[in-house]
Amino acid sequence: MSNKIDSFGTSYSLKKINDKNPIVFIHGVGLTKEIWDPQIKFFKDYNTLTYDLLGHGKTPLKKTKVSFNDFTKQLVRLIKQLNFNRIHLVGFSMGALIARHFASENSDRLCSLIIHGSIYKRTEEQMRVVKNRLEVAKLKRPASKHTALRRWLSEEFSRKNPDIYKKIYSILDKNKRLDFLKCYDIFCNYVDDDNMLKKINVKTLITTGENDVGSTPEMSKNLSKMIRGSNFVEIKKGKHLCSIECAHDVNVTFKKFIDQNNA
């Protein structure tokens, strides 16, 4: 896969091997398109597209304030420029929120939707915790990155896979601080809109890790009740980055669902 830049400045990697509808992956806040490497390798016989969100990786953020509408527009522009009429969309964490917004307005452009590791209706205590993380992030402390990785990956996995740990830490460390904070702010202060969710009209799979403390299985179960006809699958033993730590289980789950909806 080669890195390219679209006419709006979005950095993306496209692997196109046939004329079938591609799988498009949206990463989470503070990360980049490289986070999907285990999925790109697994889906080697599929058309796949990954890209850096505004203010992440090699994609600039030129606005003083960003919104989820901006992220939706970014994806619309990208797939239009690549002449994709319909896609399978996979969104992770903040990317899951973007995928939800996109799907509420563009269900006709989707073959299927996978919402992975998504928040939904955080409690007051959960909101307090995440807003505290925002304040810590503003202080630019290296410890906050290590703390995030401890939430996202099991201690055993991190110990056995130091290179993966270092790679993810490096991605976090290379963030443009002000751009990251703009994006992290709208994630931390996100308020769910059930009316928007009810507009989603596409086959939907909702997944999260069994041990994800920020995007809990309970959240995903409740989210599934709001999106008509959606299914929920819990990734056993997984934490927030189970797409890496439990890549096989995640990939097989994604593939089964995508193949069922590969019109």
What is the helix content? 40-55%
Uncertain segments are none
- CATH H-level superfamily title: Alpha/Beta hydrolase fold, catalytic domain
**What class do helices, strands and sheet pairing give?**
alpha/beta
Question: What is the CATH topology?
Answer: Rossmann fold
How far is it from the N-terminal to the C-terminal residue, by CA? 24 Å
Biggest sheet statistics? 8 strands, mixed
Q: Kindly report the average pLDDT value.
A: 95
- Percentage of residues in DSSP E strands: 15-25%
**Shape from CA axes?**
globular
If strands are numbered along the chain, what order do they take across the biggest sheet?
1-2-4-3-5-6-7-8
Whole-angstrom Rg: 17 Å
Q: Can you tell me the number of structural domains?
A: 1
The count of strands amounts to 8
List the helices and strands and how they pair.
Elements: E1 2-5, E2 11-15, E3 23-26, H1 37-42, E4 48-51, H2 68-81, E5 87-92, H3 94-106, E6 110-116, H4 124-138, H5 142-152, H6 155-160, H7 162-173, H8 177-188, H9 194-197, E7 204-209, H10 217-226, E8 231-235, H11 242-245, H12 247-260
Parallel strand pairs: 3-4, 3-5, 5-6, 6-7, 7-8
Antiparallel strand pairs: 1-2, 2-4
Helix pairs in contact: 2-3, 4-8, 5-7
What descriptors fit this protein?
263 residues; alpha/beta; Rossmann fold; 8-stranded mixed beta sheet
